[in-house]
Design a protein that fits this description.
The structure is a single chain. With 416 residues, the chain is α/β, with parallel strands linked by helices. The chain folds into 3 domains: 105 residues, Rossmann fold (3-Layer(aba) Sandwich); 121 residues, NAD(P)-binding Rossmann-like Domain (Rossmann fold); 162 residues, Rossmann fold (3-Layer(aba) Sandwich), CATH 3.40.50. The strands form 3 sheets. A 6-stranded mixed sheet has the order 2-1-3-5-6-4. Strands 8-7-9-10-11 form a 5-stranded parallel sheet, with helices on both faces.
Length: 416
């Protein structure tokens, strides 16, 4: 291996794709067991490597030297082989500082808690100190090492909470390191994991109206800093921003919510084509799987039975990537559906003029929408669901323009 990433759990990493986008032809992902680390590094059969959990601290004993910043932090994530002389660097620090600055996270004087006690946690604590954070604490599952997660869950002082653990990372996207509901002073949640797009703890933060920042900006910038060490070629901030957009665009889902007749299917198909994503209409999938129309499913199983089928399908859709998903109009009645979809998706509420939606729905006699049997019932459903649509949405689009303009607006507001 000339260039690559080492760790115990790297198979889902974006690093290979990212470095290849930067021009590195061959970049490998190498899974090592802890007992294999020493042999790998002493053989020195590489030119440059990135290091991830759990080796950022343990690798240091095999190095010949380190930059001052890595020595200060006590953690290394990039190693350059200079003709048999191993030099260690910490580009995560550059990435984390970039994340704070790009997302306007002001830590000065703030009470900050970092979850985790490994190499990434050490780096973040040094960065926070250099940024002038007020109080800096860390949380650990190891007894007598940092504060406990039980204490953290009831901490009323923490203002900025940072997850530097792998908890909640793909494929275990339902997990979260702590419940934030009792953190009364909390303002911002940062999760340095970048997959899923919004972690489970991030979903909790958004539902409380808190600022949430995922780890994608840190990932791309630290990779750019490592690329410079590998090649002696700097990648500009503009190029970093473009690469970040490409990574997000190629992985995140777009979730379309809204009433029947809002245009979710029509716009969803064209949006998927534009973004080169697959398209899924949950109502269509349900009809195909049951070999029956929505009306027939509801008549046979009742509304509750239909909603159960819908929820089971959404459980599966939540793990999709790079997909435009059009949901049924009533999917938001179970808020857990949207929590699941939000983890790897941007939720877009298509809010069409009510009279236009009614005209579209009843133009064909409304044969397959048994929950809206009349215009009056349709209006009642809209009023009953409207608050949930708005609460769940990351983006609200008034679908009263041309399809071309609507698609352009979605892409711009989603940052794609």
């Amino acid at each position: 291996m000339k260039y690559g990433l080492i760790g115990t759990d790297v198979q889902y990493s974006y690093s290979k794709k990212l470095h290849e986008m930067m021009g590195r032809d061959k970049y490998e992902l190498l899974i090592l067991k802890p007992e294999q680390l020493g042999l790998f590094l002493t053989k020195k059969d590489f030119l440059g490597i990135n290091v991830t959990m759990p080796f950022k601290v343990d690798c240091m004993q095999y190095l010949d030297n380190m930059e001052q910043r890595a020595r200060q932090i006590g953690s290394v994530n990039t190693i350059i082989n200079q003709r048999g002389f191993l030099m260690g660097y910490n580009t995560d620090y550059i990435g984390f500082m970039y994340l704070l600055n790009k997302n306007n996270v002001d830590v000065f004087g703030k009470d900050c808690v970092v979850m985790g006690s490994g190499g990434t946690s050490k780096m973040i604590r040094v960065a926070l100190q250099n940024k002038g954070a007020g109080r800096i604490r860390y949380c650990s599952r190891i007894k007598n090492n940092g504060m406990s997660y039980r204490d953290l869950a009831n901490d009323i002082d923490v203002q900025i909470l940072i997850n530097a653990t792998p908890v909640g990372r793909y494929p275990n996207i339902e997990e979260k390191p702590v419940d934030i509901s009792n953190m009364k002073s909390l303002e911002t949640v940062i999760d340095i994991n970048y997959d899923p797009y919004t972690s489970a703890i991030g979903v909790d933060a958004k539902e409380r109206g808190l600022k949430y920042v995922g780890g994608i900006d840190m990932l791309v910038m630290q990779a750019g800093a490592a690329h410079k060490l590998f090649t002696n070629k700097r990648i500009s901030d503009d190029e970093i921003a473009k690469l970040t957009k490409k990574i997000i665009r190629g992985s995140v889902n777009i979730i379309l919510i809204g009433m029947m007749g809002a245009g979710k299917t029509t716009i969803g198909k064209k949006l998927a084509k534009k973004l080169k994503k697959r398209f899924v209409d949950t109502d269509d999938v349900l009809e195909q799987s049951a070999d029956a129309t929505i009306a027939q499913i509801i008549n046979a199983r009742g509304v509750d039975g239909f909603r159960t089928m819908e929820t089971n399908l959404i459980d599966k859709c939540a793990n999709l990537k790079n997909t435009v998903i059009a949901t049924g109009g009533g999917a938001i009645e179970n808020l857990d559906n949207l929590r699941k979809l939000r983890k790897n998706g941007i939720i877009v509420f298509l809010n069409r003029d009510l009279d236009a939606s009614i005209e579209a729905v009843f133009a064909d006699g409304n044969k397959n929408r048994p929950l809206a049997v009349s215009e009056e019932k349709f209006r009642e459903l809209y009023q009953a669901r409207y608050d949930n649509y708005c609460m769940c949405a990351d983006i609200i689009i008034n679908n009263n323009e041309s399809i071309k303009d609507i698609i352009k607006e979605i892409i711009e507001k989603a940052g794609l």
